[in-house]
Specification:
Low-confidence stretches of chain A: 249-253
Mean pLDDT of chain B: 94
Strand content of chain A: 25-35%
Radius of gyration of chain B: 18 Å
Structural class of chain A: alpha/beta
Helix content of chain A: 25-40%
Number of helices of chain A: 8
Radius of gyration of chain A: 18 Å
CATH superfamily of chain A: P-loop containing nucleotide triphosphate hydrolases
Order of helices and strands of chain B: EEEEEEEEEEEEEEEHHH
Bound molecules: adenosine-5'-triphosphate, magnesium ion
Mean pLDDT of chain A: 93
Structural class of chain B: mainly beta
Low-confidence stretches of chain B: none
Largest sheet of chain B: 8 strands, parallel
Largest sheet of chain A: 6 strands, mixed
Distance between the termini of chain A: 19 Å
Strand order of the largest sheet of chain A: 6-9-10-3-11-12
CATH class of chain A: Alpha Beta
Strand content of chain B: over 45%
Oligomer: heterodimer
Number of domains of chain B: 1
CATH topology of chain A: Rossmann fold
Chain lengths: 253, 232
């Protein structure tokens, strides 16, 4: 999917969060965003997803050159946008398999019987090294942070999205789980060459696995510096303030 | 499981052996359940548009797991537990008419347990009241009473939970929790972001409030189907 953010300015509760945000992600590209706490990274992910409480005051979001600004959140999900949440919710009284099936039926064009569907998600859960029982437990209730993240990836692989936002996928996942999950993602991306990814993270480890082509540094609601993977290394080493000051050949096209 | 369709206005169910029951209640009913000494049983009931006057008595060492759904039902329930008895109850009420429900839990003897869940969904702009009285008699030992009540307003209905715990004994644990609110917008948005429309998301969540704490086995499908018709 080709996604463009053009001069995007966003308000929440009358507070300016994103300001003149520009970003172009072409089909198959992987971009990463890094930035200090509270600069608006999760906000950005929710704006792309279509959260109505985040008001776009200026600019546009385009998918394959068409504005999606007016599209509701469910329609964007059906277009193929998938957000892996920083803090996925839990839902008491509802089994994982039930929400996953409702979602699959709503989004996917392929029709599957309940049996085929369960077999399919069980296969994915094996791939992700998850306990199959989790499917029959209440959705994310009592799950650890890492288990919730795996559940997100399970859901992702089931819906086969065309644009993926990973909002701190790496928080909560242990070293081994991060490896398993990113391997599954890489395999998916290998099979779905048009799918693009936006990674939001504070650490380079996830970037070592997913290998973004571009890395952007965000501050005060906008991108202040872009580069390749070496920018991420620089941020990790020197922090956000110093990395910004370092001059060098870091800017992408 | 014994399936009984009750079309009378009074019914006595005396449970003398370890058997389970599914009761379909067809009209306003006075139902007396007594579980005999040493017997363990489970009752599932379903009622639509019928009020229920329910009396439960557990004799010594009896145990009962009762789970029921009432749609537009008004429930009055009195429980009485004798020595070493164990009651678990999950009752849910979904209503689009005024419904004032009253539960009296009487822990009459020592070494008894009661875990009572009462969940409600106020579907329209009607009244949905729960009055829950838990009474633990004087000088009892080792009594455990848990009352959990919750009402979700689908619209702007008038919902109330009035809890009373009258505890006249030291060696007891008695807890009460009450929640009245709306469905969580954050969860609805989350489901939206996975393609699930508002209407379907709300249905899933309301069903969870009403049935989530139940273990219905084969009756699950029937309960779900009925709810789907009501909360559309
Ligand atoms: N719904 C909201 N209502 C009010 N303020 C909000 C809302 N959502 C976000 N904000 C504010 O917007 C700012 C950006 O928040 P956001 O969650 O996007 O930060 P972030 O960059 O993802 O931070 P972190 O790295 O800690 O995850 C914060 O100051 C936050 O408090
Ligand atoms: Mg964040």
């Amino acid at each position: 999917m080709n996604l463009e953010l053009e001069n995007l300015s966003v308000k929440v509760d009358n507070k300016d969060i994103l300001k003149d945000f520009n970003l172009k992600i072409k089909p198959g590209e992987i971009h990463a965003i890094m930035g200090p706490n509270g600069v608006g990274k999760s906000t950005l992910s929710k704006v792309i997803m279509g959260y109505p409480d985040y008001k776009i005051v200026k600019g546009d979001i385009k998918v394959d050159n068409k504005s999606i600004k007016e599209l509701e959140i469910t329609k964007r999900a059906k277009l193929g946008i998938f957000l892996v949440y920083q803090n996925p919710v839990s839902i008491e009284g509802v089994r994982s398999s039930e929400v996953l099936k409702s979602s699959y039926d709503a989004v996917s064009n392929e029709k599957k019987s309940l049996y085929e569907f369960i077999t399919n998600i069980e296969d994915i859960s094996v791939e992700l090294n998850m306990n199959k029982d989790m499917l029959h437990r209440e959705f994310n209730v009592g799950f650890s942070g890492g288990e919730r993240k795996k559940n997100e990836i399970l859901w992702l692989l089931m819906l086969k999205p065309k644009f993926i936002i990973l909002d701190e996928l790496d928080s909560g996942l242990d070293v081994d789980s991060l490896k398993v999950v990113t391997e599954a993602l890489n395999k998916y991306l290998e099979e779905n060459k048009e799918t693009s990814v936006l990674i939001i993270t504070h650490y380079t480890r996830i970037l070592d696995y997913l290998k973004p082509k571009y890395v952007h540094m965000v501050k005060d609601g906008t991108i202040i510096k872009s580069g390749d993977f070496s920018l991420a290394k620089l941020i990790e080493k020197y922090g956000y303030n110093q990395s910004f000051d370092i001059k060098g050949d870091l800017t992408c096209e | 499981m014994n399936k009984i369709c009750i079309e009378t206005s009074e019914f006595d169910l005396k449970i003398t052996s370890n058997e389970d029951y599914f009761l379909e209640i067809k009209k306003a009913l006075t139902l007396k359940v007594s579980v005999c000494k040493n017997v363990q049983s489970k009752i599932i009931f379903l009622s639509k548009d019928s009020s229920i006057d329910l009396d439960i008595e557990l004799l010594e060492f009896a145990s009962l797991d009762i789970q029921g759904l009432g749609i537009n039902t008004t429930l009055t329930c009195n429980t009485k537990e004798n020595e070493n008895s164990n009651l678990k109850s999950v009752i849910s009420i979904a209503s689009y008419k005024d419904s004032c429900n009253k539960i009296n839990i009487n822990m009459a003897s020592s070494n008894s347990n009661c875990n009572f869940f009462l969940n409600g969904v106020n579907l329209e702009n009607n009244k949905l009241y729960f009055t829950v009285n838990g009474i633990i008699n004087k000088n009892l030992e080792n009594v455990l009473l848990e009352e959990n009540t919750c009402i979700i307003n689908r619209k702007d209905g008038d919902s109330k939970i009035i809890p009373n715990l009258l505890v006249d004994s030291d060696s007891t644990v008695a807890n009460h929790s009450a929640f009245i609110g709306k469905l969580d917008d954050e969860v609805i948005r989350y489901l939206n972001s996975r393609g699930i429309e508002d209407r379907e998301a709300k249905k899933i969540l309301l069903r969870a409030v009403l049935l989530g704490k139940m273990d219905l086995g084969e009756a699950q499908e029937e309960f779900r189907n009925l709810l789907n018709l009501i909360i559309d």
